[in-house]
User: Fold these one by one.
Assistant:
Number 1:
Amino acid sequence: MTPESTSPVPATTPQTPSVSPAKPVQNALTWIMTIKSPEDYQKLQGLVQQLSSAPAGQNPIAAAADTLGIIHFLRFVFLENNTKLGVMTIYDGDFDTYVNEFVNQVGPIFDAVLAHMADAPPLPTQTYRAQFNAYVRANDVPVVMFYSAYPTSTVLDIWAATGK
Amino acid sequence: MPPLDLSDIQGFILRGYNFPLARHLMLQINDASEGKRFVGSLINGNARLPQITSSVEWGAVKPTTCLNIGFTYEGLKALGLPPDSLASFPQEFVTGIAGRATFVGDEGENAPENWPSDYATAQTHIVLSLYAQGSEVLETATAELRSAFGQQNALIELGHLDATDLPESRVHFGYVDGLSQPCIEGGPQLRRPDMQPICPAGEFLLGYPSQNPDFSYPVPTPSILGRNGSFSAFRVLEQDCDAFEQFLRTEAPKIGMNEEKLAAKICGRWRSGVPLVLSPDTDSPNPPLTTEQINNFDYVPSDSSGYACPIGAHMRRNNPRGERVAGAGAHIHRIIRRALPYGPLYDPATPNDGIKRGLVGHFICVSLQDQFEFLMTQWVNGGTFAPGLYGTKDPMLGDNDPEDSKFVLPTANGPQIITGFARFVTTRGGAYCFLPSLTALNYLASTEMIKA
Ligand code: HEM
């Protein structure tokens, strides 16, 4: 989850300290989960479709991400013949803290997705946070190269600049 | 919500006493039954011993002393709390302040290894906080308490730290403090309106609906132990007044500002307490702000760019109020501050006097992780929660390093940036405390707990 060690951005301290720091503010999560069974895949697909076909502003995942204000991009993909679900995101800063906040806010949505996973942690996530975090970490594919077109801009910076 | 049982909730959670003196005694329990006896003696109505103060209104006569108590995880263990009950406490409390030090920025000089042994450290089991109207009653009450510690080192006083309310309720660095506090549903109402939502009781007390829409914090078991309790981060924060004044003197002229204005930009209030948002150009507006006005403001929409109060100022960071921040909103991370200065008033005419000064007290919340630690990691030492702050930390409180420190003052003509400053506040002690209800204290004092 922390790409800084492999970042192509030079790690040297800039000459003038007022220049923004070299480490990109964004991090990547490539969370690949194994789906329990074809039936679970069917249900998950239904769930994801239902979420993404909700009218603008009513998709609870988008709404939660909008509230969170640290997620640049988020996508769900089915992989390896629909045996796996990938959740991929580029986000700002500290993952654990905001996942924790996400769980406070929309824990039941995580639970609904995780219920279909082969090696799911104990649920509900609101009760078993450490296990949930460990599960995410264990299933996050490490970054080997990370590029950012705007390494020092957070979602909130971009929103402020674009008047959102 | 049914009304809060004020007689069951420790007083300093719901109300500020506004006493001039405080003394924090750090205790260690070496004998569980003596420890229990001591806890019991603080709630059994013994007229010769200060008793734990509840949240019940005083009426006309203010007491001469107030007493409150917090237990660390090690303290609860030393009292013999059974394992299943110990296991029901939140992880960060179990780990304790020393184990969480790196995470919250207590590194290097600030690390627990360097905390004086007579301040709160990993060895502390109990923080006993005594508040007094004068030094005579403070000494009498202290002597009474000490006489109740018992024989043969059953309870050891590791040390104590005294705090004093300085004139005009100033804290070191020269600011008037104690103006903003959360208003809690079912608790005493605040004298100063503040444009902020009332906090649900469960944001500060265990056993009530919390600030999160469908999640409330688990109550440690058994429920007579957990309910109506709370948590605090007890902190001893040393302030380098010389360095702070020096910083103002050198940096203010560089950006064409006077020292007082730079001091205001660092905090979010002028040293007089007047908030920058209501008075960006003077610390003494005419007519002066009333009690009703002094905390009655928001940063948005009027100051969303931070031209009046920098987005990175201490109090705007620690409570961004209505501003859009990363996460589900600023109001879910409120904290109650019960802290007073230690060390005498600083006199700029006699710098480098070698006297230790700082702020000591309890930062109270229902979840150390979601409130105190969130503030320290995201808002104080982090810079991704609001626009324009990446790579910056709280200029007053943050873990700043001259190598990369940066304070951004937005203006209509682009930001002014101050760099190269060190941290002004050093952590010198601390303890994560559980603040039990009076029912829970009775339970902790009983032998019934061991049988449970
Ligand atoms: C030596 C250390 C500190 C000093 C000198 C200091 C000083 C101040 C001052 C002068 C104010 C403005 C007065 C007021 O609004 O009541 C303030 C507000 C505040 N501080 Fe600190 N503070 C310190 C440590 C902390 C810590 C450790 C925290 C949190 C963990 C914190 C959180 C806050 C909050 C939440 C506010 C009120 C903001 C609001 O509600 O608008 N402070 N502080």
Note: The helical segments of chain A are 38-52, 60-68, 95-114, 129-138, 155-162.
Number 2:
Amino acid sequence: MNSKVPLKLTVNGETFDIEVEPRWLLSDVLRHQLGLVGTHVGCEQGACGACTVLIDGKPERSCLTFAIQVEGQQITTVEGLTRGEHLTPLQESFSAHHALQCGYCTPGMLLTATALLEQEPHPTEQRVREAISGNVCRCTGYQFIVDAILAVAGDTKEDVR
Amino acid sequence: MTEQAMRPQFMGARVKRVEDPRLLTGQARYLDDIDLPGMLEIAFVRSPYPSARITGMELNAVKSAAGVRAVLTFEDCPILLWQRDSYQVGQPVLAHNEVRYVGEPVVAVVAEDRYQAEDAAELAVVHYEPLQPVLDMVQAIEELPRRVHSHASNVFYHKEYTTQGFSDAFAQAPRHLAATFRTTRQTAVTLEPRGTAAMPDPASGRMTVYASTQSPHRIRGDLAELLGWPENQVRVIVPEVGGGFGMKANTYPEDVVVVWAARHLGKPVKWVSDRTESLLTDVHARDDIHEVEVAYQDDGRIIAIRDHLMADGGAYPAYPFSGAVGETSLASRVLTGPYQIPYIETVIDCTYSNKTPLGAYRGVWGPIASFVQEGIVDRVARSLSLDPAEVRRINMIRPDQFPFRNAAGMIYDAGSYGESMEEALRLINYKDFRVRQSALRAQGRYRGIGISVFVEPTAMASSEAGSVGYESVFIRVEPTGKVTAAMGLGPTGQGHETTMAQLIADQVGVNLEDVVILHGDTDSAPFGGGTGGSRSGPIGGGAALVAGREMRQRLVKLAAHLLEAAEEDIELGHGQAWVAGVPDRAMTIRQLAEIAYTHVKRIPPGMPIGLELVARYQPEQSVSFSNGTHIAEVEVDPLTGLVQVVNYVVVNDCGRLINPLIVEGQIHGGVAQGIGSAFLESLRYGDDGQLMTTSLSDYLLPEATDVPRITIEHLVTPSAGEGGIKGMGEGSLIGAPAALVGAVSDALAPFHVMVDRLPVTPDDVIEWVTARV
Ligand code: FES
Ligand code: FES
């Protein structure tokens, strides 16, 4: 059961040819095979959302996904949000609103919020809270995260990124 | 002398954190992100029984499994935590002959990766002979059904205290009531689980330990002592830490095993907890019973409190800080909170059980003491049909009474107790609330308000982070004029790289971005206590101020000499030194630094070469009290038992603020944890001693939809210490649960409900309203 199979994985626009055991979780492959350790693991039980990545633009839990399931799909991790030197408006807003403390939930929060704002550029506060309700933050009490997301939603007219 | 920085430019400002960019871009490195060539990983075989004798082990299959490098038992690694025998009991780092809680590590399997280690661990066969578990602390006090440790009493800590004159005062009071308060086990649940890695350095013979800890020097000392190594052979590096909340202040069995394995295998070794292991073995907290009797007067004045405090400490005292002792002993000393209740009598019993060791979780004693104290006031108010706010007013310590000595002998420095409550009542519009409340009740809707006026002892000499009453800062102005400072703090998200830099930048007269704060490396930081017990702001911040000021004095002296002016005429700021009123006679700090290091002949006589120094700060007062008031408004649905928090206000006084943004973040987070404590979080043991809540689907954490928008206002009563700073990391979780469950009591007053437990579950609510209609 531990024999490896070849896998073509597309992450942050780059394609990687790797070999994985079929049982390896996407979270482990991203972190330990590709070195993309910005994806965090908080429970491996699908409950905390720390491991959230975007799969074809939709937030998914990489701890509940086997790497071999996502061949051919577009995966976005936190490392793929920033192009070049500068923080994105959402990342800037997180910093300006103090929406992170220990930072462990932050990559998952950013990805969930990114997907939300792509879908709904002007969500209400309640919508924002619902959208991030699958992402646990133990430090911030959520208010500043909600503020950070709403501030970006307010800033932008149509297109978010 | 111009000792104080002119006007602080950064202290008190809402500056963005320097930590943020790396955290926002996925570039921060936490413990599990450390990957060294050849690194091995550990999986633990853990006890499935709360209490059993180990009668045999079959480990051959484990040893020959793919990738396995070593299989360790107590015979290999015969180390006990608490060798200093303070409690007559030391936890073996791997179980020895007997297991005493579910999850106790029994065998360590070291393999090439975690998948292989876990596969092999599953092959271990351990034979057990189950013993009757000890699960009830009231029985345990009577040594029933048996002793957890055959050679030691179940009661491992007992203490009594009585204010002089208690008996007469208690007996003579016209009114009495009794109540029992119970808390159910909870735990910190840092989003990043615990973990440790160790890397032997064959060249130097030293060991580098990567630890996800709040207290780098403490864990270095513990490891050196437990393993019998010289302290200077161990270097502790703390990577980014994903939350601590007191839970990461302990040294755990797994830490010792990892380091031991690295030394004996000569390889880097890592262990990272999975979530089930976390819930089983991270220190638990809040397992307390308070049996309380209260004597009071017809006007609501409370005269005396008697309390039998019990705490279930679990199978072993957590090392080196037993949460049971922490939760009870300090609770007994501040049980009267902000009220001038003159007499108290307390009896404390901490017991062993066959459950996970009890350690620290943010607030430790505080959430429980506040819950009891505010529960007492609300009971007094209800029994007399008085307004709960009015009963608080009658009993509140007045501003003219500071410094106030409470019934247990604790000295409170000045605070804004009454003012904070009045301000909070105004913010939540208490005046109109009762009208709204009865209108809604007429429609069958149950709203209530709970008031929690809290005190938070901060900056104490001993806390879960250790018994260090001071902090140290090594500060250096680099030859280029940039400033580097190293500290022994152990931040886990509090933003010390920002707040400490704010304090130092003001003193040294440079810009914030010119200061780098180093922490989490025992090779670079001077000895320090770490982070815990709300000490980093007042003690660590105090040390940063002292270090910055001493460096400022050095720079002023140098500038005065070079600019040929009197020291008192030199001003520093924005990276410059100049003569007051003559801005042209100026030098940059960079120029001064260059001279201090390289053109040393120009240094005034008697001044040391270079710009480096170590400063230490120990507050004169042994404690400084923060305070504040939380008021929660909740709506309880009597049919579903669900509680919704509809409105929440906090008036907080932690003395002078270093960065209000960070203070507010701490308050929000603490209130959210308070909502968890009050309504969601509970580690439940079955009658057989099995922990039933071993995933985050069973142990429920507050989500974004559970937490309301929180209104915060700051009051400022400075401490007498450096900078007027008081600690504030715990106050929000100290205040919140009492406010939240108090609001439930108020909402359900028509059903005669007075909440007596934490947390309150929907089942509890349904039972109360159906039993009492
Ligand atoms: S780690 Fe995937 S949901 Fe928690
Ligand atoms: S910032 Fe620590 S878990 Fe969210």
Note: Chain A touches chain B through 57 residues (CB under 8 Å).
Number 3:
Amino acid sequence: MKAVCWMGTNKMSVENVPDPQILNRRDAIVRITSTCICGSDLHLYNGLIPTMEQGDIMGHEFMGEIVETGAGVDKEKLKVGDRVVVPFTIACGRCFFCEQKLWSCCDNSNPNYWIAEKMMGYSPSGLFGYTHMLGGYAGGQAQYARVPYADVGPLKLPEGIPDDKVVFLSDIFPTGYFGALNCDIKAGDTVAIWGCGPVAQFAIRSAFMLGAERVIAIDRFPYRLQMAQEGGAETINYEEVDDVVQTLKDMTANIGPDSCMDAVGMEAHDDGFMYKLDRAKQALKVESDRPIVLRQCIQACRKGGTVSVPGVYSGFADKIPMGAFMNKALTMKTGQTHMMRFMQPLLDRIQKDEIDPSFVISHRVPIDLAPEMYKTFRDKKDNCTKVVLDPWAN
Amino acid sequence: MNQTIQSRDYDSAPCASKTTERKVGPIIAGTSMALLGLSRRSKSGLALALAGGALAYFGSRRNASEDEVLAHGSVLLNCSPQEAYALYRNFEELPLIMQHLESVTKIGQGRYRWIALGPMGTSIRWDAEMVHDREGEFISWRSLPGSDVDIESAVRFQTAPGNRGTLLSAVTRMDPPAGKLKRIAAKLLNTFMIQQDLRRFKALIETGEIPTTEGQSHGPRSRMTAALRVADPTRPPKGDSEMSEVFNAKRRIA
Ligand SMILES: NC(=O)c1ccc[n+]([C@@H]2O[C@H](COP(=O)([O-])OP(=O)(O)OC[C@H]3O[C@@H](n4cnc5c(N)ncnc54)[C@H](O)[C@@H]3O)[C@@H](O)[C@H]2O)c1
Ligand SMILES: [Zn+2]
Ligand SMILES: [Zn+2]
């Protein structure tokens, strides 16, 4: 089959690889019909998260049809022919964490848990196509994928609903929603969201669903800011203001947003001195993350407010303003999304026409063009917001 | 634990039959203090176990030598102590879970012959007799004279605080003879390895399988990666794929 493989930093290539096989009793094989490139993939593309190996198959946002199931898959829940969307977090469904619905913290799904334990104390769940530290599972930017614990994660889809509307249930729609939920929004709240990427776009819309009165979205790309406005947000182009934190003060009568969301993560961009310092440290591998946005979130948040961090961090970040965090009595909430909590409820919203997630798609291309699209998406060229790959088109 | 969360029907894993009432096992006095020490949450747990527990337990009968290896591990299992005990007590199946074990065979009168695989096709054999065997609570065995190594092991099953399943703690002590066997034995027993074995045990009892990516598809690997894989000292002598084949063929569970 065709698969997008990580061949080193800034090197993706489409390779012919063997079709996946059932390796465990609860596995299933999915024939993939749509698969996407995510902002999280860019951290791997840019070589910023350790434990990738040349030849690893990328991708964690995919959907398709079940073509094979292992002997241990509950046939009531999943069978050959079912059309499913697959969550990017791999969860066993039976450990303490899964029972608490902390799906992205599953205790059993990461065979390489001990690598993650060295860095983080304890290991989160395995993820598709996302480093050996997080399981080393082959990803879904391919024609087929093996899905472990197949009767736990994949969500069965109703007939007739097009891929474009449901494929983002694999990650970014639930992630945006979880980010908004983590803002602890109360009616009338103002939420500031850094980044206007696909995750943030869903976070903006979810924040309104959860009762926010104002959403202020921050980025520098006009086409992304415009999409945020279409979702009802006010926007700040951070390149056009002197100081984002001051601008937010001015916009909120000197109170500050009730919650601040970092939907950017470890590769934030900025023109300031700290950015250059962080970049240099990242290049020298003395700091793995550039927490520019996280710092701003903590500074900007109103007293007693909440900082929500859906943006991905991998290791260590410097100069986090702990004094502000502590003295302003802030709360921080974060995590890889506990996908299985949100997939069904959000599918319901899609079916009720409350939202059509396909609005984020800017590019639909055959899988062979994936290497170019990685570059376009990274550089935010050609008004690129979200790339959907067709594994079968030529 | 909120039982409604577990209302899903998971009948392929042994813990699916988890009973709603978990019996709090009586604290085993005396010899099992080692494991009690290990289960203490404090940082000094290990120290305690080593000072007053495991050594006291293991050391009371013989003089500990310098070469003695003491390794331990613990896991929280989402099942009852009885279920955990039942899977563990089935020694003959332990090689399916424990990477270095080649076979365990019953040789009668509560005795078992254990064979562990070392590097480069070497192996170590010992015959062991049961010392304690209390259902749902405690198992210990020790090697008999004439074995390749002097080794003993104890495993304790306790209801976890808050009724969150079973706390399994294991300690193994080995006093290898000098020479070649000593070098092999040293590669067969350490805390990292025990912990890995226990994680596989946990995965199996909770999910009915052991997670793996061995045998999955990938693009061309670099020579460097291949070389690193060979050089990786933590890489088990038996590949996971081989393991899961054995599992699929032989596993009696579910
Ligand atoms: N928690 C999860 O489970 C989860 C899931 C998916 C993605 N993510 C993470 O969410 C983040 C966003 O993902 P995406 O797909 O939207 O990525 P993206 O790259 O498309 O978007 C990031 C956006 O942030 C903007 N940005 C950069 N620096 C900024 C700054 N200083 N201030 C304001 N905006 C800034 C960029 O211009 C860009 O538009 C990534 O870190 C990704 O890894 C997390
Ligand atoms: Zn993603
Ligand atoms: Zn789990």
Note: The CA atoms of residues 153 and 275 of chain A lie 38 Å apart.
